[in-house]
Amino acid sequence: MEYNVRSTAFADVVEVSGRIAASESVDFTRRLEAHLASDPVRAIVLDLSRVDYMSSAGLGTVLWLGQRLREAKSGFAVFGLRDRVAQVFKLSGLDRILPIYPDLAAAEAAIEKGESGGDAPR
After folding, report:
1. Domain boundaries in the chain?
2. In the sheet that 12-20 helps form, which strands lie side by side, from edge to edge?
3. Which of 14, 45, 47, 102 is the 20 to 30 A CA-CA neighbour of 32?
């Protein structure tokens, strides 16, 4: 799993690539926890366009991140789900409770409007 963070005007974009299986989800969670330790917590857009596999442990990490950002009243969005990953989100029901968008522009627009599960970014 590769992990990179870049900042835009509205959010920190977390770009992930590769597989997010059980062992990778532990590392993914640790990296996200370290990122969230920053003050103030910015909105996060999770770019999964280069993720080709995600296990239930990976889904748990994404759900945890969404809950943490909601509690912090920060925006959160996911975009770029490949077919296989989108199917896992759908089968788990996460597609109905997490803000998922087709691309970065749509995700950032939702965050700017405060429609992404938290308040607009600070």
Report:
1. 2-106
2. 2-7, 12-20, 44-54, 76-79, 100-101
3. 102
Taking the chain (122 residues) in runs of 10, the rounded mean pLDDT of each run is 92 96 94 86 94 95 94 93 96 94 95 69 36
Topology (CATH) of 2-106: Transcription Regulator spoIIAA (3.30.750)
Q: Which residues pair with residue 13 across a beta bridge?
A: 6, 45
pLDDT of residue 117: 60
Q: What's the rounded Cα separation, in Å, for the pair 83 and 37?
A: 32
Identify which of 6, 71, 80 has the alpha carbon closest to the alpha carbon of residue 44: 6
* Farthest CA pair distance, the chain: 36
